[in-house]
Amino acid sequence: MGGAEAHEEGTVGPAVSTQAEPTRRGRQLVLAVCCTSVFLSSLNNTVLNVALPAMQRDLRSPLSGLQWTTDAYLIVLAALLMLAGSAGDRLGRRRVFRTGLALFTLGSLLCAFAPGLGWLIAFRTVQAVGASMLNPVAMSIITNTFTAPRERARAIGVWGAVMGVAMAVGPLVGGVLVQGLGWRSIFWLNLPVGAAAFVCAARFVPESRAPRPRRVDPVGQALVVVLLGCLTYAIIEGPGTGWTAPRTLACALAAPAALLALVLHERRRTEPLVDLRVFRGAGFSGASAMAVLSFFVLGGFLFLNTLYLQNVRGLSALAAGLCLLPMAVMNIVTSPLSGRLTATRGPRLPLLLAGAATAAGGVLLATGGALTTDALLFTAYVLIGVGAGLANTPVTDAAMSGMPREQAGVAAAVVATSRQFGQALGVAVLGAVLTAGLHRSGTPFTRAVLPGYWIVTACGLAIVVLALATTRRVVPAASPAGRRRRQAAGARLG
């Protein structure tokens, strides 16, 4: 569920390859290695959710500590995606990709041995630095390996499917591991897969780099880190320390200041880290906002429901993973359906359906009935899964439609960053709402969590409004306009 991350960001003209053109079998091996990396990085965070209650008991962590365990990874990943894409163009994509695999595997090993909560959060950032070098660089490798438009489209489709499956089955895999081997086993899982991918990348992935890579923008990168980090800190720590506490207030003020400084700085650069021109189109801006909203729901929903199923209902980690299986199944089932709808009808219809399903699931949870009735809870999980599965492909299509080829890389990077930041923001905001509710004396979890589900409902409705406002009307595929659109899409892909 991440789409084309930062493909060919900053590249002008064809990539420079230092090896012979791979054969068809060689290209399939390259795709397999790249898909293995995205499977690891996507599975890593959703598999963590089911382990959070066990971590909370073992490490004696407050709720904010669980939020940081999740968001330390997501924030660092979101902040470094664009930098990692340009580093691959400059230093060599295979070299940066293998460095990412090494760091991600090392971070997983350190997390498995973390002696305390603070160490675990620190080691999660090591994982995230490595993961930031996997998705955008792997996508760039794929787009430079599969040069024929049809073959490239199929490769990107496989990539997206693997990402969606990894994120969907994460809770179930996490439940099996935590139930059988304990929460540290979710990090052990990454070690053999990461090591095998590292070796295979050296053997099968050709080295390539951009002939004219983008310049490094250290000031812009630092401002992005300050913006995302300070905003997340203020949201997570505010309910516990108080919104007027000096550090919380300082971070709350630093975030908008960093945003303003970032806009002013990037407007003056000829090769900015974030090319603000991509936001001039309503379609791209709307797609970025919908990416934030859809992943806000996914991240926040998984965080809240893992705590509810295990801490309130008293289910085991495995049983909690099985309860979330309807969501995973519907995510997997509706993702290819969304792709077909987007290809034939455009992004508007699947986005409207995604927003409506998300809002309906949120209402079932927010009114409290789903928290006491198994049938309603099952229905809510199905609806949230449908919403997540339908949203991803049309968001990418809406973002890239009409985007000039020379801006495609940075546009894909911005959308990828929006997804990761949305997921982090969902954990931070819904966790903060839950914390604020629990701090009120005598408020049970099942009441304290309801405002968070109303926020989920609002996100679904916002997706509907944005889809109506920023995407094109449905154009029948058989009409002359539909044929022209397909031809234009093929030209962009080629």
Question: Topology, pairings included?
Answer:
Layout: E1 16-17, H1 24-59, H2 63-91, H3 93-112, H4 117-132, H5 135-145, H6 149-181, H7 185-188, H8 190-204, E2 208-209, H9 218-241, H10 246-268, H11 282-312, H12 317-323, H13 325-345, H14 348-366, H15 374-400, H16 408-439, H17 445-448, H18 450-470, H19 480-493
Antiparallel strand pairs: 1-2
Enumerate how many helices there are, as a single number: 19
| SSE sequence, one letter per element | EHHHHHHHHEHHHHHHHHHHH
Q: Write down the Rg.
A: 21 Å
* Counted beta strands: 2
The main pleated sheet reads as: 2 strands, antiparallel
The percentage helix is over 70%
Segments where pLDDT lies below 50 for 5+ residues? 1-14, 486-494
* Estimated share of beta-strand residues: under 5%
Strand order of the largest sheet: 1-2
What's the rounded overall pLDDT mean? 80
- Class per helix and strand makeup: mainly alpha
N-end to C-end Cα span: 23 Å
Shape from CA axes?
A: globular
Describe, in plain words, how this protein is organized in 3D:
This protein has 494 residues and is an all-alpha fold. The chain has 19 helices and 2 strands. The longest helix is centred in the first third of the chain and has 36 residues.
